[in-house]
Design brief:
This protein is of the alpha+beta class. About 40% of the residues lie in helices and about 15% in strands. It is globular.
């Protein structure tokens, strides 16, 4: 009887201790993942990126795919000078020369994790996604990503980019209202005009008391001195940045491309791997 009472008294303590150990191990593992860097080995040189803690869904997913070898052998299939280089389409691994790419993925999307402080400076690592018309919630592709090369902007040009950002934000809200209205009314031709009118009114009401987005002063300075692609801000999830290999980004962005922006000579990701944060 004594032993049984002792066990009953000790058991909760043991369970608490086990839970504490489990949580501690999880936190330590999570902390290691948070500080992880990724090395992208390409046939034109290596790029080292760090992943942001502020975007945990994207960070965890990217680490998972890297560990699985998902990106190994894939291409930078879309390259636009002074803008960005895009990869992560698994269909590119065995694609014939000239094939139009960009529709492949792991079969899922990731909820947007858009933060004003994470912006599209040169070297930003961000998630590709489908258009606002079909994706007003700005959900990210499960695997496709891009790295910004961009260009430098003047103050006047940044004012114009602010207008583009605000127009894109309004467009996403409009399509969200429109798609909902059309779904509720039935997706018929006769209902589309009414759905457009309702969505336009709802969008105007939504932004009636909202100040337009302004590019922060510290971001403007970066865009003017280092460069980037500011019109993408607040519309795509930035989840990391290049810390070594910006010259490789420039080298890839400079290659000749076809009418689909695919490099005429394949730019291949030989391997991605996690590396220790020094």
């Amino acid at each position: 009887m004594y032993k049984m009472k002792s066990i009953k008294r000790i058991l909760p303590l043991v369970l608490v201790l086990m839970l504490f150990v489990s949580i501690s191990f999880h936190c330590q593992t999570e902390k290691r993942d948070q500080s992880s860097l990724v090395l992208i080995e390409t046939n034109l040189g290596n790029i080292k990126v760090k992943l942001y803690n502020q975007t945990p869904l994207h960070r965890v997913n990217f680490i998972k795919l890297v560990k699985e070898g998902f990106y190994n052998g894939t291409l930078f299939h879309r390259v636009i000078a002074d803008f960005m280089i895009q990869g992560g389409d698994p269909d590119s691994r065995t694609a014939q020369s000239g094939t139009n790419l960009g529709d492949g993925g792991p079969g899922y999307t990731i909820p947007a994790e858009i933060h004003p402080e994470l912006f599209h400076k040169k070297g930003a690592l961000a998630a590709a996604r489908s258009s606002d018309r079909v994706n007003p919630d700005k959900k990210s592709s499960g695997s496709q990503f891009y790295i910004v090369q961009g260009k430098k902007f003047t103050d006047t040009e940044l004012d114009q980019e602010e207008n583009r950002i605000n127009n894109m934000l309004k467009q996403a809200v409009f399509f969200k209202f429109y798609n909902t209205a059309l779904k509720n009314a039935g997706n018929h031709q006769s209902n589309r005009a009414k759905a457009q009118q309702d969505a336009a009114l709802q969008t105007a009401e939504f932004f009636a008391d909202s100040l337009p987005y302004k590019i922060p002063a510290e971001h403007r300075k970066v865009y003017e001195t280092i460069g980037g692609s500011p019109h993408l801000d607040m519309n795509y999830t930035v989840f990391g940045e290049v810390i070594e290999g910006l010259d490789i980004i420039d080298k890839i962005a400079a290659v000749p491309t076809d009418e689909n922006d695919r490099p005429k000579t394949d730019i291949r990701i030989i391997k991605m791997k996690l590396i220790k944060n020094q």
